[in-house]
Amino acid sequence: MSDTKTLTGDPFIRGLFESLLKRRLFYTEAFEIYRTSGSLHSDSRGLFDYGPPGCALQSNIFEVWRRHFVLEEDMLEVDCTILTPEEVFKTSGHVDKFEDWMCKDSKSGDFLRANHLIENVLEARLKGDKTARGVAVDDTEKGDAKVDAKKEKRKIKDIKAIDNYDGTELGELIERLDIRNLDGNNKVSPPVPFNLIFKTTLGPNSASPAYLRPETAQGQFLNFKKLLDYNQNTMPFASASIGKSFRNEISPRSGLLRVREFLMAEIEHFVDPEGGKKHQRFNEVNNIQLNLLDRATQLSGKTDLRNMTLEQAVEKKIVDNETLGYFLGRIYLFLLYIGVDKSKLRFRQHMANEMAHYAADCWDAELLTSYGWIECVGCADRSAYDLTVHSKKTGGSLIVREPRLEPLKIEEWQVDINKAKFGPTFRKDEKSVEAALQALGQTQREELSEVLKENGHITIQVPGTLPDDKIDVSKELVSFEKRTIVQNTRDYTPNVIEPSGIGRILYSLLEHVYWHRPDDVARGVLSLPLFVAPTKVLIVPLSNHQTFILVIRRVSQRLRQFGISCRVDDSGASIGKRYARNDELGIPLGITIDFDTIKDDSITLRERQHETIDNQEVWDDIFKRLPEFISQEGDD
Amino acid sequence: MSDTKTLTGDPFIRGLFESLLKRRLFYTEAFEIYRTSGSLHSDSRGLFDYGPPGCALQSNIFEVWRRHFVLEEDMLEVDCTILTPEEVFKTSGHVDKFEDWMCKDSKSGDFLRANHLIENVLEARLKGDKTARGVAVDDTEKGDAKVDAKKEKRKIKDIKAIDNYDGTELGELIERLDIRNLDGNNKVSPPVPFNLIFKTTLGPNSASPAYLRPETAQGQFLNFKKLLDYNQNTMPFASASIGKSFRNEISPRSGLLRVREFLMAEIEHFVDPEGGKKHQRFNEVNNIQLNLLDRATQLSGKTDLRNMTLEQAVEKKIVDNETLGYFLGRIYLFLLYIGVDKSKLRFRQHMANEMAHYAADCWDAELLTSYGWIECVGCADRSAYDLTVHSKKTGGSLIVREPRLEPLKIEEWQVDINKAKFGPTFRKDEKSVEAALQALGQTQREELSEVLKENGHITIQVPGTLPDDKIDVSKELVSFEKRTIVQNTRDYTPNVIEPSGIGRILYSLLEHVYWHRPDDVARGVLSLPLFVAPTKVLIVPLSNHQTFILVIRRVSQRLRQFGISCRVDDSGASIGKRYARNDELGIPLGITIDFDTIKDDSITLRERQHETIDNQEVWDDIFKRLPEFISQEGDD
C-alpha cells in the first residue's frame, strides 16, 4: 500500500520514516521496557507515549484547533469526565451498538478483527503470498483464487465497503474465500460482536458499573440545558471539548493510527432543525473548493473525486445544508493551516449503512498516507438523536423554548369531559376511559363529534374494560369542541452538527511533511509549519568557548520568556551538520551565535527551509517579539 | 470548619460561594440530569464537569504551570498513557499499597472511609450532636464522651495524624469511642483495606488486566533512558506531564476537593544523588521566605509555623537539600502568581509514616480553605525507588553512565581460575564451585589467599555438593590476586524530586479570590488575576441600536484574533449592574462601547477591580496588542 510519495516526489519508505519518529522520540510504544522483557501479554498493545517533540506537536495542533474553532466562534469549551456510568451509554446506544466483529484463531486462540483479517489476507494473496491462499485452494485453482481475491479486493478497497458488512456478510466471505489467520494459517471462528468500550466500576462494590468514554460528546449533550442558559438562551451556539477518549480495539496494528487511547477534539454545534440549517458565516467559506467523494459515486463502485465549491455542493444538495458545509470549509482551512498536503486531502461521505448509529449524515476529512486514506476529522449531523434519547430516559428537559415573533394560531379539536358525572359513571375505569378519549387523534375527534351529535353517544376502545374492551360514552359525559389555540412560544430539540478531530491527524501530517535529501536518505526532514513545530528555534553556537555559554543561556532564557521553545546544539559537529540533524525535529528557525554576538549582541536568524513561510504575519510577529536582536542574512 | 474569611474580611459562607460556582457553570456534578431522575447508584458520585469558566480557568492555571516550570527550565514534556498494564503497578507497589481503610455500615451496607468517619463523628460530638454520641455512652457519661472527643479531635486535627493510622489503630479507635455511621447510627465493620486504582481489561480476553493511572509519574520513569538520550545524555534534567489521573475514592464528599478523576501536573527532576543534590539556580530563590510546618513541630503536637528563608531552611537541614528547596520556592512563586492568598499558604512536611510508599521526604503546599488546610501541590523526594524497582523487574537499564573526570583507581582481590584443570576436576559441580568462589567477599578472598599459601588448598561452602556441601580446592586450580582496577565511567541511578500539582488548586484558589460587596451578599466577586481569568474582557454596549451590533462583532473578532477571550453583555440592565453581574465570572477588563465608538472608533477600557494589577508587563502587553484602540478613562 505504501505507494505514496514524499514532498520531493521520492517513494515514501515507511521503515525509514518510523525509525526517525522513534529515534527522535516523537513517540514510543508505551511500557516498552516491560514489553522487551517479555512480561506483557500481547493483548496490551495499541498504547503509545508521546516524547517531547510528539507531545509538543500534539499540543500545538490542538491549540490551533482551539483558536481556529473554539475561540474564533466563541464556543463554550467544557471539560467533562472520562468515567461515565453505564446508564448513560445504555441510553446513547453505545452499550448495545458500539462494537466490531471479531474472529478467533481456532488453534492459537488469538482474536482478530474480521474486516482487517479479510483485507490483509486478500492483499497478501494479491502479492502471491503462498501461506495466504487457504488450504482449500489447491495449486490448479491458484489462478482462480488470485482472480477472486482481486475482484473482492477491488470491491472493498478505498471506498471501505467492507466496513459496512455485518457479521453474516463477513462470515460468508471468510467461508467462501477460505480466509485464515496469516499467522499460522489456522481456520478462524465465525465473526462475533465485541464491544469496544472499556469497563470499570465506581466505588467499592460492584453496583455501579462505568465505562471510559469512546467520544467526548455525551458529556456535552447532558449539559445542554445549562450551556444554553450560560449562553443567555441564545441559539445557535456550540460547545466544544478537547480530551482523551478510549476504544478497546480488538487487535491494534498500524502504529499510531489504531490506538486504544487518543486525544480528541469535538464540537457540538446546536442548530434549529427548521429553516434549512442555514449558517450566518457560510459566505466566508462558500468559495472554497473541496475534493468530494460523495455517496452516489461510491454506490457506483468508483472513487473519482468531484471538485467543486462549497456553494455548489450545498446548492446541488451533495452536502445537505449550509451548517454542515460551513464546518467542512473550516476543517479544510484548519488542515491546510497545520501543514497538510492539499493533494492528499479528500472529503468522503459516509454510506447509509456505514454511519454511526446516531448520525443522519456524515463526511470525513481523509488524509492519504502509506496506509491508504485515513479518516482524521469527521463532520457528522447527529440530528436530534442524543438530546432526544437522554431526555426521554431521564425526563429532563433538553429543549429550546423560543418566543415566537408572530404568535402561532392553531385550530384544534379538544375533548371536554363532564367531571361531575364522569367519575360516578365509570368508577374504577374512570382513568382508562379518560386516557382513551385523550388519545384520540384530531380526525377521530372530528368524526366522533358528528356521531355524538347523531346518536347521542359513542363507542370507544378501552383496553382492560369488561366485557369486550369497549365502552359507551353518552353526550352528557363528553363533548368535542373545535377551538383556536394561540402559541406564543415554540419548543424544539436542536439538531447537532459535530466536527470531530482525532489524534490520527498527527501521524498523517507527519507523513505529509516528511522528506529527505537525495544525498542523505537515512536522515529525514520534517517541514512543519512554524505554528505547529514542536521546537521553534535551534540555537547553534559557532564555538564551545566559555563566553558563548553565557550568551546561549541569555538568548534561550529570553526566547522562553516569550513562550518560544528552543533547543541548543553545542556539539562539535559542523554548523551544516547540526542544522541537518535537527531537521529531523522539524525546527523551522535557527539562530547562530558567532563572535559578532559576543561583541555586539547581533545574531544570525535563519529560516530553516529556505522557503517562504506562507503566513507573513507569523514572521512579523517573531521580529516584533525579538526587538533587541539585529537580524543578519544567514550564510550557512 | 468554615471559619475562614473572604478577601474583605467577612466570614466565608460556603453555601453562597458554591451556589455562585454552580450558577455560573464553573462546575456541575457530572450526569446531573441522570442523578436527578434517580437512575444512578449513589456510588457514582465524585465526578464533576467543568463548564466554560471552570474549564478556561483550569486550562489557564495549567498553562501558567507549563510556562512557569516546563518551558522556563526546558523540561521534557511527555504524554504517556492513562491505561497501564497491571505488571507496571505491581512493580511500583500500587497494586499492593495504594489503598485506604474502609468500614461497612452493618445495616445499610454503605462503605465509609475509616479516617473520615472518625473525624466527622468526633466533630459532630464536639458540636453536641446527640445522634453522634454512640449508644454505649448513656446520658450520665455524656460529659466524658465530649471530653474524649475533644482530646482525640485535637490529636488528629490539623497535623492530620489520623491519616497515618493503620487499620488496627483505626479499628481500636472506632471500638473505644463507639464510632458509628452518622447516617442511621448503625455500627460499622472493622476497617479493611480498599485499593484505589480503577481496574479494566485490555483486549477481548481477560488475560491482560490494566489500571487507570493514579499519578502520571510511572510513564515518565519507564521512559527515563530515552529521555536521557533525547537530552543528549546531560544531567540533571526533568521530564514533565500534564494529564488526567484517577482514584477510586471510597465515598467521595467535599465537592471538587475529593474527586475520582482529576487533572494533574507532575515534574520528575532527575538528579545525581552524590554531591548533596545542589541546584544551579538555588540562588534565584534562596531569599524567599516560606511558612514551614516541619516534622519536628508536628511531632510535638503543635501546628506553629516557622517563617524563614529557603537558604536558612536548607542550611538548618529542615529542608533536606537545595533541589528540594529550589522547587519549594518555585511552587511558592507559582501559587502567588495565579492569585493564591499568601496568608493562607503553608508548606507542611510529611510525617515519616505518612509519606507515600516511595517517598524519602515530602513537603506539601497547603492552602487554607473552609475545609481546613488542603494539600494542593506536593514536592516529594522519591529517591531512586521507582527507577530501581522497574529496572530490577525488567532487567532494563535505567541508569546514568557518566565519564569520570579523574579515572577512579580501586584495589581489588580477584579470583583466577585455572579453567583447563577446573572442569575435569569438578565435572558437574564445576559451575557451582566457580559461583561459590566468585561470591566470596574482598576480606574472605584476602584471608583465603593466606590459607592457600600456607596449606596449598582451601575448603569452601558449595551448597548442593556431596557429601556435606563442602569442597576442597587446591592451589593448582585457583589463586587470589590483588590488582588495581581503573574505572573511567561511573554508573548511578538518579534520585527524583517530584513537584506535583493537582486539580484541587482550582477550588482553593476560587475560595481565596472570592468576596462580596457589603450591600450585595448574594452576588459574589472573583478577583482572579488577568492571566488565569477565564474570560479577559467584558464588552458592554451602551445601547442596543443596530449600529452597535456591527461594532461589537468587530471588536470581539479583533480580540479573539489575538487570542483574548471576551463576553458580550448586551442586556437592557444598567452598565453598573452588568459589570457587577459579570464580576461573578471574574472578568478583569471591561470595554464600554458608546456613541463615541460609533463616531470615531474610540472605546472605554476599564480595569474591573479598581486595583492595580501587579504585573505591569501584562498591561503593556494588552495595549501593545490593541494598538488601534484609543483608551479613555473609565467613568462608570
From TrEMBL, chains A, B:
GO cellular component: mitochondrion
One Pfam family matching this protein: tRNA-synt_2b
InterPro entries found in the cross-reference section: aa-tRNA-synt_IIb (IPR002314), aa-tRNA-synth_II (IPR006195), aa-tRNA-synth_II/BPL/LPL (IPR045864), Anticodon-bd (IPR004154), Anticodon-bd_dom_sf (IPR036621), Gly-tRNA_synthase/POLG2 (IPR027031), GlyRS-like_core (IPR033731), tRNA-synt_gly (IPR002315)
SUPFAM superfamilies cross-referenced by the UniProt entry: Class II aaRS ABD-related, Class II aaRS and biotin synthetases
Subcellular locations according to the entry: Cytoplasm
Protein name: glycine--tRNA ligase
Aminoacyl-transfer RNA synthetases class-II family profile domain residues: 197-518
Taxonomic classification: Eukaryota, Fungi, Dikarya, Ascomycota, Pezizomycotina
Name of the top EC class for this enzyme: ligase
GO molecular function per UniProt: ATP binding; glycine-tRNA ligase activity
EC number: 6.1.1.14
PANTHER family: GLYCINE--TRNA LIGASE (PTHR10745:SF0), GLYCYL-TRNA SYNTHETASE/DNA POLYMERASE SUBUNIT GAMMA-2 (PTHR10745)
Catalytic activity, as annotated: 2 ATP + H(+) = P(1),P(4)-bis(5'-adenosyl) tetraphosphate + diphosphate
Species annotation: Talaromyces rugulosus (Penicillium rugulosum)
Record-level GO BP terms: mitochondrial glycyl-tRNA aminoacylation
Keywords, ordered alphabetically: Aminoacyl-tRNA synthetase, ATP-binding, Cytoplasm, Ligase, Nucleotide-binding, Protein biosynthesis
Entry similarity comment: Belongs to the class-II aminoacyl-tRNA synthetase family.
